[in-house]
Amino acid sequence: MPKRRVHVVAAAIYNGDERVFLSRRPSYVDQGGLWEFPGGKLHPHETGLEALKRELNEELGIHVKRAQPLIRVHHEYTDKHILLDVWGVRDFEGEPYGREGQVVRWVPVAELGRYNFPAANLPIIKAVALPHAYMITADQADETRFETDLAAALERHRPKLVRLRDTALDAEAYAARAERAVDICRRAGAQLMLGHRGSDVEAMVALVERLDAGGLHLGSDQLGVLERRPLEGSRWLGASVHDAAGLAQAERLDCDFAVLSPVRATGSHPDAQPLGWHGLQQMIEHVRLPVFALGGLGLEDIDHARGVGAQGVAAISAFER
Ligand SMILES: Nc1nc2c([nH]c(=O)n2[C@@H]2O[C@H](COP(=O)(O)OP(=O)(O)OP(=O)(O)O)[C@@H](O)[C@H]2O)c(=O)[nH]1
Ligand SMILES: [Mg+2]
To answer: Which residues bind Mg(2+) (predicted)?
Structure first.
């Protein structure tokens, strides 16, 4: 017998940027006792957003005014194929409570890892904890200029996640710059991702740990040759990819996110064929991984990127303005 296909909507309801609202499934239902993002199955002829509004009213007593797509996760349970269609909710009326008697709680995003969720939820948790803008540092040979520009971009745009791109630095110069950049980012409340294509991955992992950086960002070539996740789960592992094979490898390695490019034509890669928004959407539809869109995009494209199922936008030059 073919498996049942179930379409479920669920919400990450935010209180500011710090907390999300979780429910615990009653012990007598499917996946009982596990924590979940409130929501449920679509009724016939309902859109996702209609179902979301109905479920959050039935389960929590709130009225959703606006919601934004966060991530879509396909998952095979033994008895069913489930599509979890997850929305971010920041704009609602009422105070959520356990209207069906379920246990509920506001949970700091940083503590989500301590809760037990259904197996399908891991990519959702990563997507909730990840920001929607990923800043990539620009090429700058001059060290003082680099540091001033970085501090200015952090101040102006307040990104939470930054990647120190390797540019033309050798391994030693990269490590020296990384040490100062981690510090500058930390003072601005941002985490710094390290990754240097000219160094082996083990050396980069050691650097990430020594500097207590946010995580490791793999180039697409490095991603291709690895066999398992090279980094502990408490730090971010990101990867640059350009096609479906890259996305599949990023999933296999248990990366926390991928950066897919180019979405638009860019001056930095004039020969690469741009994916376009539709190409991006098709490529990430079945990927269990938050994906940032990169290539000719700016911060004004974040909503559009999220609308086609991406986590958000990665950019270099948008942060220089
Ligand atoms: N709401 C929600 N469901 C989830 C999550 N993760 C996950 O695997 N699921 C699965 O998705 C399905 C959701 O169905 P549900 O039982 O909440 O459906 P519902 O609210 O419409 O209830 P009902 O079918 O009793 O009327 C369950 O199989 C559940 O285990 C999650 O984070 N939130
Ligand atoms: Mg439910």
So the answer is: 39, 59
C-alpha separations of 199 from 50, 169, 173, 221, 286 in Å = 50, 11, 12, 12, 32
* pLDDT value of position 128: 92
39 CA to middle of ligand 1, Å? 6
What is the biggest distance separating any 2 CA atoms in the chain, rounded to whole angstroms?
65
Residue whose CB lies within 8 A of the most ligand 1 atoms, among 5, 7, 41, for a mutation test: 41
Quick one: which atom of ligand 1 is closest to the CA of 120?
8
Locate the ligand 1 atom nearest the alpha carbon of residue 119 and give its number: 8
For ligand 1, atom 27, name the residue with the nearest CA. Answer: 30
Q: How far is CA 292 from the centre of its chain?
A: 7
Task: Map residue 81 onto helix, strand or coil.
Answer: strand
Is residue 315 within a helix (H) or strand (E), and if so which, with residue range? strand 312-315
Whether residue 284 contacts residue 264, with contact meaning beta carbons closer than 8 Å, is answered with no
ipTM confidence: 0.92
* Domains parsed from the chain with CATH numbers: 4-129 (3.90.79.10), 133-319 (3.20.20.70)
* Nearest-angstrom CA–CA distance, 233 and 226: 16
